Amino acid sequence: MATQPSETAAWLTRNVVDCLPDGALERKLGEGRPLRVKLGVDPTAADIHLGHTVVLQKLREFQELGHTIVLIIGDYTARVGDPSGRSTLRPVLSAEEIEANARTYTEQALKVLDQDALEVRFNGEWLDMPMEQLFALTRTTTVSQLLERDDFSKRYAAREPISVLELLYPLLQGYDSVAIRADVELGGTDQKFNLLLGRNIQRAYNQPEQVIMTLPLLTGTDGERKMSKSYGNHIGVADPPEEIYGRTLSIPDPAMPDWYALLLGAQPDPALAPRDAKRALARALVERFYDAAAAQAAEAAFDRLHIRHELPDPDAVPVVRWSMNGSASVHLPALLAQAFGVSTSEARRGLAQGAVRLDGEPVAGSILDVPAEDLDGRVLQMGKRRFARVEIAE
Length: 394
Prior knowledge:
Layout: H1 5-12, E1 18-20, H2 24-29, E2 36-41, H3 50-64, E3 68-73, H4 95-109, E4 118-122, H5 124-127, H6 131-138, H7 143-146, H8 150-157, H9 164-180, E5 184-188, H10 192-204, E6 211-215, H11 241-249, H12 256-264, H13 274-289, H14 292-307, E7 319-323, E8 329-331, H15 332-340, H16 344-352, E9 356-358, E10 361-362, E11 369-371, E12 379-382, E13 386-393
Parallel strand pairs: 2-3, 2-5, 3-4, 5-6, 7-13
Antiparallel strand pairs: 1-6, 8-11, 9-10, 9-12, 12-13
Helix pairs in contact: 9-10, 11-13, 11-14, 12-13, 13-14, 15-16
């Protein structure tokens, strides 16, 4: 590993989009002390997906060099909703949803980060501030500065609503850097405005300004838009191995070089055909979040289902237990909802689209109620990769 600040800075910035101001990271590293490296996340969803790990892996590199990572859970800013890249207002989450998401997010971040060099903070610690302090914060920035943001300027030009809370969001994120005295802040390229504004706010509070680093956004499984749970093109780091493997194989071939570079820090083996390179990528991702045995099992399960078109091993399929409560038949949409965590309306759509099978045989979309004896012990399937073995209880 490089030891000179210039060499260390070059290694840390080898795969970033921006590191601003030029030369500032080298100067910070030259101070010879552990840096406080910040990442702020709003727990608006329960799970971390592969797109999040691009930034988390960069944080891990800082940790391995002896620096302290400050992971800020935005329990307060989540109530506002980050408007970055948005063309509409974000829905408001309840305090209970935010708390549950924050707990899961922190647990999953430790799949990448080292807990011993991690400081987890909630920005409710300092953003629950008196009005006098809030007024002082708002004086640091003008409305015209905020409207320079691409998403705000487009919405303003289109006469679409922008709430005052949304305008406050970049200021609140910037104040996080003041509260924890950040030396470096990381984010995706869609966060560049917010990260730079954090420097301005630190300066207004007479603090040394942070270095900002932006990293590329990973495209989702559709190969077009950034990975996001709201787009349905994500792969969660806590998803089952078979799901990670199968969904990775669904990415378009042109997306592979970026996936390899951003997730594995490498490029596909030129000697491999695209199909084999994609399989190698899928195995590597499952092994990263589970282990080699799980990767081999996921590949074997995929081949069994999608190459040989066989049903999965019943003993390896999760069991869904259905209580009859005196009824003679089972309402399929309700059973599907219980088995796969979908809504009953989504279950009905799956039935109508021919996506539901029993022991590999399609279930007619018109059939909503099935005799219990026709389901007991059979493998229920929804889509390509969701299976459950039905057990009927009286």
